[in-house]
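User: Before I run my own analysis I want an independent prediction to cross-check against. Here's the chain; please return only the structure tokens and, at the end, one sentence I can use as a sanity check.
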Amino acid sequence: MAELSRSYLVCASQRSGSTLLVESLKTTGVAGRPEEFFQYLPQTGLAPQPRQWFAGVTDESILSLLAPLVPGTPDTRNATQWRSDLLEAGRTPNGVWGGKLMWNQTPLLLDRAAGLPERSGTDLRSAVADTLGGVAFVWVRRPDVVPQAVSMWRAVQTQVWRDDPSAAEDDTARYHAGGISHLAAILRGQDESWQQWFAAAGVEPLEIEFPTLAKDPQGTVAGVLEWLGLDPKLAPPPPIRRQGNARSKEWVERYRADAAANGYPA
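Assistant: Structure tokens:
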């Protein structure tokens, strides 16, 4: 398979700021159409549902705050068709392809890539190469896991994953230290796994930390465009707003106190 021109993969964990980055890159019209192509479970055709983030958890005070599972529709595409579809969906007319991959989605990528003809290997690096060709890696990370976990806990309850003026205010979201703790451990594990994989695979990604992105999103996107060999002047103003608000800050401080008292991840 021929390598794509200036292709890139944004590697991240949930609520790290990666959506702001990829939506900004998409808005340029020249930096691919990066989506989270690897999140969909073949059994349902859906991204992991709120309760699936809490597999093995039996605490009903947590589970009762989460929507019940829906069956979805199985994705019956073979690996070759799946690859063809995502390459087409993520590419802009100038040949640039963009996508986003969370660490928890790497098993799905490995499983899909296993069905491709003429595999070059069985590891993650091979799966990426066999699926996408040559890509550059961008690593978006959020060093402070507490606001990240709080943000995700609110999102799994409301199922609102980005700023949406048409969506109802998430009045139904409820604080739960155990729910936040569970997600904090997952998110910290994802970040550590990316760090270990980059080192072991000899990959040097363009690293972007959430505080930098949040402080200057347009300037950060301009830097990514320049790194990709594209015109940095095409960096747009932020196309979406941050979802964090006063309640988020209140929950962050509340959880820090609970974590200190109970030994939760922080």
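Sanity check: The radius of gyration is 19 Å.
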